[in-house]
Every structure is written in structure tokens, then in C-alpha cells.
Amino acid sequence: MSHPWKLSGRLVLLVVLLATPAAASAPVTGSAVGRVREQVGKDEPRPVKGAVVYLVHVEPTRAARARRPVTIQQRDLKFEPAFTVVMQGDTIEFPNQERNAVDHNVFSPRVPGRLGFDLGRYGRGTSRPWVFREVGVYDLFCNLHEDMKAQVKVLENAYFAFTDAQGAFRLPSVPAGRYEIRAWRPYTVEALGTVEVIAGAASARVDLVFKSAASPPRRHKRLDGSAYKEAYD
Length: 233
What we know:
Blueprint: H1 4-24, E1 29-38, E2 46-47, E3 52-56, E4 70-71, E5 73-75, E6 78-80, E7 83-87, E8 91-95, E9 106-108, E10 117-118, E11 127-131, E12 136-142, E13 149-155, E14 160-162, E15 168-175, E16 177-184, E17 191-197, E18 204-210
């Protein structure tokens, strides 16, 4: 003969055990969405494609992003791509993939609060790496060819996304909280804002606006501070 109170007790215990993991897995993240536009003077704002939008000082609750190989090649006396976004600690390879026997010397000048680097001179078919350990923007130049320019943006976490053709972006799985949010593109003053991400919410919306057009540097010095010459050794 069965004992209902025992059966009932087992059922209650079963319910508690099943409910506990569900409660623990309640959503603690939300999403941030928005648009990035450019407005210079009194012109109508227009969407910006390819800007990177990122959050500052987010606790790293998202699973660590696997380190991926990143390459900036030198070809036809240019850096390709012209700008790159990586995370702090990522390594970038700089292969010389010129069609002809052309040497390069990739470097980034030192600026206040951040070290630069110099990869030295190397020839076609060879490559040299650099580990980007400091957050910030690195200007890339070639010590032999004045017109070669690029930038690397180093971020502190994986909470970033690129804007599409309409300037739209989405940052998923963001821990709940209030954050500074920034939009960056090469040679432009960053657009700043704040966003409040609510746990379980579909999205928190924020729009960012660049107030100036991109303006690449016209002149820069060689690694030793001297001016470039028309011919190179």
C-alpha cells in the first residue's frame, strides 16, 4: 500500500530540483542597438558604414573570445586593410607581399602614455609580428615609403560591433548596467554616449553622431624624426 505523503514529498522535492537551475539561468544580460551618423556643420546627418561601436569598462562575463590570426599585408605600397580592430593582447602579422623586390619597415610612433614599435626592415616574402598589449589607436607607417598609412584600434573587451550600410549596430549579450559607449573610425574624433542595458530586455537604444569628417594626416616623420626623401636606399 502506498503512502501519499511520501509520494507527495517526492513530487515537491522534484519540483524544487527542477526549478533551481531555471532560476539560476535567468537572463542577466541585454542588448544595445542604435545608429551611427555623421553631421558636419549644417549638413543633413548621414549614416556611417564600417565604424566600430564599443563599450568601455565592461566586466568580462562573456566567454573569452578565441584569439584569431590577424594580418595587415603590405602590397602595392599600401597597408591592406587600411584599418583594423583587435582586442588587447592580439597579435598582428605584417607580411611583405609586394610583387617586386621591395623592402618595408613597419613602425608606429611613440605617443604620450603608449609605447610605439619598430619591426625593422624586411624584404618581400617575409613577415614580422607584433603583440598589441596596450589599449588605444596605433598609427602605422613605413619608414621607407611616406604614403603608406594605416591605423589599428585596440579594445579592452569583446563588446564591439561594426555598423552596416545604414549605420546600424547591435551589441548582444551585454551584462546589465550603465556604460559609456563610443563609436570610432580612422582619423576622426570619437562619438561618445551612454547606454543603460537592462537584464532580459530586448534592446537599449542609443544613437551616436560624428561631428567631423575623417581627416588622414598629410605629413609625418620617419622613425628617427627626420623628413622622408624622394629616393630611398
